[in-house]
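Below sits our specimen:

——
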Amino acid sequence: MSDTTPPPPEPTPVPPQPGGYAPAPPAYGEQTAYGSQPGQQPAYGQQPGYGQPYAYPTAPKTNTLAIVSLVLSLVGVGLGGIITGHLALGQIKRTGEGGHGLALAGTIIGYVGVALGLLVIIGYVVVLAVFGAAWASTGYSYYN
């Protein structure tokens, strides 16, 4: 066996620039405009000297029942908004989906709507009772 080592590879020639001048190689430790190697082009979306582009995190999927809860509460179906809101809050807690604020808003608006509806019904009954009592005390009757 012989103890010969292969010769070092020949450096690749740099193509001449217009005007006949070749660019000077970068000094030791100097970074070129596009990276650490002369003539290297940046990857798509990468700016020279800025490293890898930042990957933005994606938002979690929004729970469908949370959207349904808010819509039902806003269109006046408060009981449906309350029920679907509580179901959505349970699913969001289990699965980690997005939409907690939507479900909470749907539940709260549903409770407020149901409470206002009950107040209107109670007020209507009270007004009918007061007018009925006042009419009965006058002595008028259908039969007279």
